[in-house]
Write a structure and sequence with these properties.
By secondary structure, this protein is an all-beta fold. Helix content is 0%, strand content 59%.
Amino acid sequence: RLMLVGISMRPKDNEQITSIQYGGQNLGLVGTISNGADARIYIYSLLNPPTGTENLNVEFNNAVDKGAFRP
């Protein structure tokens, strides 16, 4: 099993993801792409994630102006 998580945001003040976990396990960064200060997209992965319902925790170095995620 492979879980992929996509996060898109507007890095108005150079916000960055500092930590992302699912069920207490760290996800690895697959890649990122940026369009200056207008948009940044991150893709993270976790091989063999825990089964059942778990929390997805994402931490940033600063408050995010606008953003969305999709597991």
